[in-house]
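Thread: FAD-binding molybdopterin dehydrogenase, structure

OP (GT): Posting the sequence first so everyone is looking at the same thing. Length is 354 residues per the record. Can we get the C-alpha cells written out before standup tomorrow? I want them in the notebook alongside the other entries.
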Amino acid sequence: MRPRRRQEPSCGRGGMNPFRYVKATSPADALARMGRNPGARFVAGGTTLLDLMKLGVETPDVLIDINHLGLDGITEDRHGLHIGAHVSNTDLAEHDSVKKKWPVMSQAILAGASTQLRNMATVGGNLLQGNRCGYFRDVAMPCNRRDPGTGCGALGEQPGVEGINRYCAVLGTSPSCIAAHPSDMCVALVAVDAKVKISSPAFDRLERAEDFFRLPGDTPQIQTRLGPDELITGIELPELPAGARSMYLKVRDRTSYAYALTSAAVVLTLDAKGRIDHARVALGGVGSVPWRSHEAENALLSSPPTEEAFRAAAEAAFAGAVPYQYNGFKIALGQDTLVRVLNELVRPGAGERP
C-alpha cells in the first residue's frame, strides 16, 4: 500500500487554525458543551494538547477550559486517597500522604518532567498524554494512530520511510502500531491498582487504571476506554497492604526531562518467613500501554527474595517481547531495570509504608 501523506493543516508553518475558547462551569456543563461540539477538546494544563495543536496533529474548533470545576482537591479516608483530576503533578508528588504511603507514585511523577511542566500538568491530563512517537507528531509521515490506514512509520514498511523505532515498545505491539506509552505516572498507577473516576451525562463509573488503556490492535487511534461523551474527574489510590514496599525506577538517555527507555514500578510485601507474598509489577517505556506483568508477579509469589528469583521474574516479564530493528536492547535493559528495583526493595527498610 502506498502511504498517504496528510494534507498540511492550516496551522502549519506560517498559518493558524482558528478555534473558539470557552470556560465550563461544572462537569455537567463541560460534557454538555462537548456534546454540542464534536470537534472540541477539553483543555486543563494543556502541556500536551497545545504542543500537538502547534504541530497540526490536533486541530480542534473549540477548546473547553475545564480548570475551574472544583476537581483540584486531595482527600484521604480509610479506603485510600481521592485525587481530583485537576490536581497538578507537583501537588500530588509532594503530598505528604503520597510520599509516605505511596512513594512509588511520588517517584514516578518526579521522574516524569521538569518542575515547570509538573506545575502545569494535571493528573487527569497525564492519563491522556499524547503519543511521543516522531511519526505521530509529524503530519507529513504515515501514522495509523493519527491517520488510520496510512501505515506505521516506525516499522519502516513504506517507501522512503526509514523506520526509526529506538524508543518504541516491545510488549503489546501490533502490525498497526509499535509506539510506546510515554507516561511515568501511569506506570505507577497500574502498580498500585489505582482506579480512574469517569463521568458522563448518564452516570459515573470507576475504571481500573490497568484496564483504562487499550492495546493498539487494529485500532491504534483508540488509545483509552474513555468515551467521547465522558470526562475524567478523579483518581483513587487504594490503601496498600500493611508493610508494603514500593519503588519506581526510570532508565533514560539523560537524567533530565527525557522519556523512559525502560522503567519499573513495583509493590511487594514479605511474609513472616521472608518470602514474597504480594507483588505488583508494572513496566514503562517498553509497552504500548503501561504494562502490568502478571508473568513476573507469578514468578515472584512465594519465592525467596534472591537474585535468582528476581532474574527469573525479569525473564518471565519479557518472554513475549518482540524487538524491532533499533530497540532490541530494551529487553535486556528492561530485565536489568526490574531486577535492580527488586533488589533495592528487599534491602532493610527500603520503600516501606507504615
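GT: Both are above now. Quick notes for whoever picks this up: Residues 301 and 335 are 18 Å apart (CA to CA). The longest strand covers residues 262-270.
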